[in-house]
Amino acid sequence: MFRKLLSLDQAKQRIEEHFNPQPLGTMDLPLMDAVGLVLARDITSSIDVPPFNRSTVDGYAVSAEDTFGADEDNPVTLKVRGSVNIGELAELLVGRGDAVEIVTGAPLPAGTNAAVMLENTSQKNERISIFKPVSKGENMMALGSDIQQGDTVLKQGVVLSSREMGVIAALGQDRVEVFRRPKVAILSTGAEIVEPGKSLPPGKIYDINTYALIAAVKESNGEVVSFGVVPEDDVNMLEAKLKEALDAADVVITSGGVSVGPKDLVPKIIDRLGKPGLVIHGVAIKPGKPVAVAIADGKLIVSLPGHPTSSLLVFTLLAQPILLKMSGRGRKLRNILKATTADRFFSARGRRTFITVNVSQDSDGHWVASQASTGQSGAITTLANADGYVELAEDQQFIDVGEEVTVYLFKNSL
Amino acid sequence: MFRKLLSLDQAKQRIEEHFNPQPLGTMDLPLMDAVGLVLARDITSSIDVPPFNRSTVDGYAVSAEDTFGADEDNPVTLKVRGSVNIGELAELLVGRGDAVEIVTGAPLPAGTNAAVMLENTSQKNERISIFKPVSKGENMMALGSDIQQGDTVLKQGVVLSSREMGVIAALGQDRVEVFRRPKVAILSTGAEIVEPGKSLPPGKIYDINTYALIAAVKESNGEVVSFGVVPEDDVNMLEAKLKEALDAADVVITSGGVSVGPKDLVPKIIDRLGKPGLVIHGVAIKPGKPVAVAIADGKLIVSLPGHPTSSLLVFTLLAQPILLKMSGRGRKLRNILKATTADRFFSARGRRTFITVNVSQDSDGHWVASQASTGQSGAITTLANADGYVELAEDQQFIDVGEEVTVYLFKNSL
User: Fold this and answer.
1) B236: Cβ–Cβ under 8 A, 6 or more apart, which residues?
2) Which end of chain B, N or C, is surrounded by fewer C-beta atoms within 10 Å?
3) A411 at the B interface (CB within 8 A)?
4) Whole-angstrom Cα distance, residue A313 to residue B166?
5) Which residue is closest to A89 within chain B, CA to CA?
6) B155 CB near a chain A CB, below 8 Å?
7) B275 vs chain A: nearest CA distance in angstroms?
8) CB contact, 8 Å: B333 with chain A?
9) B6 to chain A, minimum CA–CA distance in Å?
10) Whole-model pTM?
């Protein structure tokens, strides 16, 4: 055991020295069940897309060279050799001087290299007059112009949204290999907390952190294993539950029981669950100072403060980036906006300080950030009503009114 | 049937005249299963949070009045009447001149109104000396200071994220009433398209839109019912499938088969599936012109263009806002950023034009938007590689290099 306040950056580095967050395996899923999951392998195309020269107009497939010089007064005349419909293969023998009727999406027959739009032609029996020249490749999507066989079209680590799903489908794949989500055990401790849904005895309060963290873990690509509330005063029970959580999950997150009072057993227990044990006990941030982190034989245990705002903020700062790496995400969440401050934001001397803020748009559409509340970190409503937070460095005294700041948003709707 | 190009705003208004998007019912769910769903009722607290005056320090509960004037040289001396632990009810009789030992999180006994920090005291037998005065309410969270009984703490329409989950748990609720997700049937048409996973005959291409739209609907709070590919050339089959889709879902979305070629049957069929029938056939936007919308006896049918980029863009512009309203969301998705243009963006004369862009940050952290590709709207890779789009009004010729634009992002990670 030791008591030393690390800076936030030192704390992150300390974790990195002992724990290397990596994806924990892959799953092969039907494509339609993979929305929101993370691609586990680069995807390389085994086909050309489109797989043929595809007309983008209704009209005639031609040799572009035959149309050169055509205009309203001197149309070029070609012989119509047949027609190709959408979804058909054009098995026509076409040469110079020939044209083939074609619709949007149909394949150009071999021997043609462009399409003439219907409105620039007139047909009489088996001959058409063309009033406007086309260049080679005009009005068609060439074979392989979207995707070429052998192209790497998607990179490992991308989250599968509508656009990536479309790309995979374009290659003809109906299954995809994605990373397994990390399993995260959530466990609240504290003699005073009671699970929601039960009656509330005098002197007790309802457990907020379990539910807030369930959502936060899901939002960070984790899969939740909830252990509910474990009374803090029963050391043996608490240790047994923590061991059970370590067996069941890849990461264990507890909240409560990390301050320096006489009953703060969690740091002591997590120190002895495996090697190397406790690596962080206290970080110089506000709110959130009483956080502890242990590594137990390759598994991560994060003990968050009991106060809901501190708990969620420290989760966001320390645990979320690790969960995103373990879920294989190659790109960061982008959830920031630039805003001008409406208030002066003060820091806690020597500690990285996080101010919860509300943002609104002024009449020019620019964002303005104002302090959400000066309330205590225990107040869940302060957090629930805030839109995001602003960060002050350890050596920064304050941010003045009218300065530009980066707001880290809690979610994607305002 | 009619052929008239409406402007985008006229098209939206036309839909609004005939279709009023409303949530379709509610579900009562365990709180932990409600992450990401939309709250169906305002939530009012039946309790005070905290439910008692709660100490925020380790020390002594006192009457603040007893400590007035105390300093290092003239400490105030009080009699220690006992102790209160966390999670306990303080059933002590405390009067002026008394102090009670207390820990962080424990309830202050009746008769006390503040807490003195341990480090500002010294204890000798049953008496403590206090070296620093406290004011009334200091070092405690007062009963109801976070949430008062009767407070409306959350409003209908909010999406349940970690912070809202925390608030609901704080009230002791382990269940919550949320809006049912709208059911959305997805159906692709076209003689040339083949479902991914099957072999690709000559002249055919793989269906991209079904999978792209499955993800887009899920991202818009919808529940997907997939009908796969329906061959466009079989009128009876297509009509039967569309009727089946209408029965199975609240909204039907088709793609393909809306251009003006000889086989474009979808607008004709959706016009006769119910009253009032077709309300939109063609919108003056680029890409995406060939879109059709019908209302069939209170259900919405949106026929998107076949080209993947057009299809997803029109979905985002016309269908997504309706699905969000039907899912009960009170707030809009915020997925925009302000950027400076790196290219000149040209519009299609007289049509609302959407330019797909990539964004990057310059060395000052400001965003720069450049055109993703000048490729055709059929190219899925153009869309997959873009970060978002920029909008040009019908009467705007171009946006010049260096202008500030709003970028509508496709998703939340860059």
Assistant:
1) none
2) N
3) yes
4) 13
5) B203
6) no
7) 31
8) yes
9) 22
10) 0.88
Cα nearest neighbour of A87 on chain B: B192
Domain closes at, from A299, A326, A353 = A326
Q: Evaluate if residue A152 carries a pLDDT over 80.
A: yes
Give the phi and the psi of residue B162 in degrees, each rounded to 5. -50, -40
**pLDDT above 90: residue A21:** yes
Closest-CA residue of B relative to A258 is: B104
- Total domain count for chain A? 4
Q: Cα torsion at B360, B361, B367, B373 (round to 10°)?
A: -10
Of all helices (H) and strands (E), which one includes residue A337?
strand A336-341
Shortest alpha-carbon distance between residue A226 and chain B (Å): 9
CB contact under 8 A, B216 and A162: yes
Query: Is residue A265, in this structure, part of any structural domain at all?
Result: yes
pLDDT of residue A163: 87
Contact between chains at B218 and A35 (C-beta distance less than 8 A)? yes
Separation in Å, CA B251 to CA B292, B297, B298, B300: 14, 12, 10, 5
Which of A87, A200, A366 is closest, CB to CB, to B172? A200
Three-state DSSP state, B306: coil
Give all strands of the β-sheet with B251-255 in edge-to-edge order: B223-230, B183-189, B251-255, B299-304, B292-296, B276-281
For residue A226, what is the nearest residue in chain B, using CA coordinates? Answer: B32
Residue B196 preceded by cis peptide, ω within 30: no
Contacts of A338 in chain B (CB under 8 A): 338, 365-366
Q: Please state, as a whole number, how many other Cβ atoms lie within 10 Å of the Cβ of residue B68.
A: 11
**CA-based nearest residue to A253, from A225, A282, A234, A232:** A225
CA distance B229 to chain A (A): 13
Is residue A2 scored above 60 in pLDDT? Answer: no
Q: Which residues of A touch B47 (CB under 8 A)?
A: 200
pLDDT at B153 (0 to 100): 92
Dist. CA B364–CA B71, nearest whole Å: 51
At B154, which CATH number? 3.90.105.10
DSSP A167: H
In DSSP terms, which residues pair with A295 in a beta bridge?
A277, A300
Q: Given an 8 Å threshold on Cβ–Cβ distance, is A167 in contact with B104?
A: no
**Residue B2 maps to a domain:** no
Token pair belonging to B358: 């990539």
Query: Could you tell me if B74 and B120 lie in one domain?
Result: yes
Min Cα distance A275 → chain B (Å) is 31
Name the domain boundary from B278, B299, B326.
Answer: B326
pLDDT band at residue B388 using 50, 70 and 90 as cut-offs: confident
Locate B121 and state its tokens: 């005291």
Share of chain A above pLDDT 70, in %: 93
Report the residue from B172, B365, B381 with minimal CB separation from A196.
Answer: B172
Kindly state the percentage of chain A with pLDDT values over 90. 66
Cβ neighbours of B200 in A, within 8 Å = 47, 51, 172
Interface of B with A in 302-331 (CB under 8 A): 306, 308, 312, 329, 331
Inspect the interface and report whether the beta carbons of A103 and B198 lie closer than 8 Å.
no
Averaged confidence pLDDT in chain B: 89
Q: What is the mean pLDDT of residues A157-169?
A: 92
Other beta carbons less than 10 A from residue B395's beta carbon: 9
Q: Which domain holds residue B172?
A: 28-49+146-179
The amino acid that residue B192 corresponds to is E
Is B181 an 8 Å CB contact of chain A?
no
Q: Is residue B100 part of a domain?
A: yes
